[in-house]
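Q: Please design a sequence for this.
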């Protein structure tokens, strides 16, 4: 199993306590579990693109998991934005994805997902994401 977390969440989001751990539950049932911790982006990461995350970091991580496990195919679980990333990866890769499981995934962006409070702030000029990005190079995860 290869778990793809959101770029914003930390890997422990699905492992909040003893007895309620996704990774623990999978390993107790005999699965090998792999995932990437994307880390927290800083100014030095401002040039990293979604392509880099998907086609470089994720693909290399999956290749390592396959090599380590000796498996020819892998099951992938995508959580939140990580599910969107996993779906894109699965559609592009030549690696064998046996199963793709997606949970709480933003896929249909034709439906607005931005909270009303943010929209009002953007309209009033109180919130300026472009300025945040200019200053920090990225929008800090603490703000997200």
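A: Design:
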């Amino acid at each position: 199993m290869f778990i793809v977390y959101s770029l914003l969440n930390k890997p422990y989001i699905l492992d909040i306590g003893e007895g309620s751990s996704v990774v623990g539950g999978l390993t107790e049932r005999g699965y090998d579990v792999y995932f990437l911790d994307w880390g927290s982006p800083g100014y030095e990461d401002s040039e990293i693109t979604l392509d880099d995350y998907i086609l470089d970091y994720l693909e290399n991580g999956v290749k390592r998991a396959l090599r380590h496990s000796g498996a020819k195919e892998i099951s992938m679980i995508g959580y939140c934005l990580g599910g969107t990333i996993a779906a894109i990866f699965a559609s592009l890769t030549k690696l064998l994805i046996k199963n793709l499981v997606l949970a709480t995934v933003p896929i249909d962006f034709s439906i607005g997902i931005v909270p009303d409070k943010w929209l009002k702030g953007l309209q009033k000029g109180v919130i300026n994401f472009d300025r945040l990005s200019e200053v920090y190079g990225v929008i800090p995860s603490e703000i997200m």
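Q: Thanks. Anything notable?
A: The chain is about 40% helix and 10% strand. The mean pLDDT is 85.
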